[in-house]
Amino acid sequence: MPLLDVSKSSSHPSDDEQKIFQYIDHHQDTFVQSLSEWVAVESDSIQPHLRGNITEMVKIAANSLQALGATVELKNVSSQDEPYGQNLSLPPVILAELGKDTAKPTVCFYGHLDVMPAKKEDGWKTDPYTLTEMDGKLYGRGATDNKGPVLAWINAVGTFIALNMTLPVNVKFLLEGMEEAGSHGLEDLLKENEGFFSDVMYIVISDNIWLSNKKPALTYGTRGNAAFFVEVECCKKDLHSGSFGGIIHEAMFDLVALLDSLVDSSGRILIPGIYDDVANVTNEEMKLYAPIDFNFEEHKANIGVKEFLYKTKEDILLNLWRNPSLSIHGIEGAFSEPGIKTVIPSKVIGKFSIRQVPNMNLPTVESQVKEHLKRVFSKRNSPNKLTVSMQVAAKPWIANIKNLQYEAARRAIKTVFQQDPDMIRDGSTIPVARMFEDITKKSVMMFPIGAADDGEHSQNEKINRLNYINGAKVFASFLLEISKLHSGSNLMTTS
Ligand SMILES: C[C@H](N)C(=O)N[C@@H](Cc1c[nH]cn1)C(=O)O
Ligand SMILES: [Zn+2]
Ligand SMILES: [Zn+2]
């Protein structure tokens, strides 16, 4: 069984790495220009009327890969987009490959080309779809989530090609356009294309952020997500609140009470049984938290809160990474524009989600939520119509950090950033992570390049120019390290 000879891990760039890093530095403005072109496409996967933009974005990315010499296939995802219940089709998924040398390992990179909704009026300093550089920060929707990291990977691979250097590994790409909505259709696609992964050894995802603004990290776990719609309908159309207020059971009364029954002021979820299957914390696990750098003040300042729900680093990390949490996202159908509209909405849909952790079970969570809401609703003696549905069901993911690719990534980080990464989990969800593991059985690693203050899903999302450029360097170095570890020069075998 191969073991790592850690003594051979170095932090000094090799000759090849120096050439690559120099090329990347010299071409950084071209790389920023590509990011600007990608950010300009409003490839929002949440609003159905923008679905065409995702297909446009998929074609742009496919062209970038073809320009590298990759074989690119646009795979149609067969199923319709069910949550919308209309004839809304899903955008194609890119499967691409570059290099077929059976002597080399194959690394598959996953990324997504869709973004969360953003409007200037939400409080952006700049137009979200015009990449704008200020103080070394590149602002724009998708800059860090996830267009910047996808391009950093393409730029890393493109640098080998531009320098006429042999690619150290075979590279495959899976790029989708529905991640932010819960990766609709992707599970079927993976099952239908298992052959694509047969020669893949490592799957790399770069779709999350570091725990700190400056210190790099490698991620070995993410939470899953169960997202729900709770719909209450009281009448057939919106009503004048002066003409009807006081004589009907308003849908919003019921909905606000239902949403209020979900979580208390300390963040504890009030749905009976929800914590029953959560895995117990082990001593081994607690030991992993000790060396992690977590700066309370930096974390608070990044998001502008006065205090967190928890006071210690361990409690913060436990509740972010390995305990479930419930968030209320919004109410469709309720008036939310400036000013006051004296209306009684006829139908309102509350939207909330529960981040999932080992060993929670999605069907169990679904019935716990539905039963709880029905119970609360029945106590209100309301004649209104209640409908509860689970819209997203994504399982949590946890990796084996002893896998060789974690060592390759650690070495690459050491070379580029001159420090060891924090080994972290992440509170957010990348639905494909667990799907990959379950369907392909291949090793999955998350290799973030974005900083903690990047503002994913938020106003003024950004990626630092330095992170974007160093991202390309660290990915290139990672491919070289994978190749070195496979060549045997850094492997020892047990007798
Ligand atoms: C981490 C990734 N960049 C991301 O933002 N993922 C989304 C995926 C999701 C989960 N439910 C619905 N979409 C997230 O964690 O919110
Ligand atoms: Zn993302
Ligand atoms: Zn996201």
From TrEMBL:
Domain (Peptidase M20 dimerisation) ranges: 221-377
Transmembrane segments: none
Stored InterPro entries: ArgE/DapE_CS, CNDP/DUG1, Cyt/Met_Dipeptidase, Peptidase_M20, Peptidase_M20_dimer
Matching SUPFAM superfamilies: Zn-dependent exopeptidases
Keywords from the named record: Carboxypeptidase, Hydrolase, Metal-binding, Metalloprotease, Protease
UniProt-listed Pfam families: M20_dimer, Peptidase_M20
Family of the protein in this entry: Belongs to the peptidase M20A family.
PANTHER family xrefs: BETA-ALA-HIS DIPEPTIDASE (PTHR43270:SF1)
Descriptive protein name: Beta-Ala-His dipeptidase
Originating species: Gekko japonicus
Organism phylogeny: Eukaryota, Metazoa, Chordata, Craniata, Vertebrata
